[in-house]
Design a protein that fits this description.
Elements: H1 2-30, H2 35-42, H3 55-73, H4 77-101, H5 114-127, H6 146-163
Length: 164
């Protein structure tokens, strides 16, 4: 039972910790020395499906793969739990960022959920900056509360207009 609890705790720590790692990496690495890989994500050529930015998928997968390997070889459930959290975050990132926000696959197109609308709005604000400087909203799942207010206010205004 203790191994299962440890695995679940480490999975949660790995998943939650990756939001911080993603934010820091996005702001200081992708919008810094590795901008040459990330820039096409902000200025994607028309009709191009793959981006140089997609290499980050492989870069972020390596720690999870290494932790799965060492955890399995050494029968360490804590490392396997951490690897599972990192991998689950990667899968969530793919669904939220590539599928929902950027619509690289035409799934999850319409949503009226306030959180999802705010998330999409925050990411849109990140992309309004085409250069590597002056960015905002570098995380994926957490973003400033003002985006909730913006989409909530818009929803209230739409309801008001539709009743008149």
């Amino acid at each position: 039972m203790n191994e299962v609890l440890g695995l679940i705790i480490m999975l949660t720590v790995g998943f939650a910790g990756m939001e911080g790692v993603a934010w820091l990496t996005h702001k200081y690495i992708m919008h810094g020395p590795l901008w040459f890989l990330h820039s096409d994500h902000h200025r994607k050529p028309e009709g191009q499906f793959l981006e140089k930015n997609d290499f980050f998928f492989l870069i972020f997968a390596l720690p999870g793969i290494a932790l799965f390997l060492f955890g399995t070889l050494h029968k360490n459930f804590l490392l396997i739990g951490l690897a599972s959290g990192i991998t689950l975050y990667g899968f969530t990132y793919f669904l939220v960022h590539d599928v929902f926000v950027h619509q690289r696959f035409k799934w999850l197109r319409n949503s009226d959920h306030v959180y999802l609308k705010a998330l999409r709005r925050a990411h849109k604000m990140h992309h309004k900056h085409l250069g590597k400087e002056k960015g905002e909203c570098f995380g994926m799942l957490f973003f400033p509360i003002k985006y909730f207010r913006l989409v909530s206010k818009k929803n209230v205004n739409e309801i008001h207009v539709s009743r008149d």
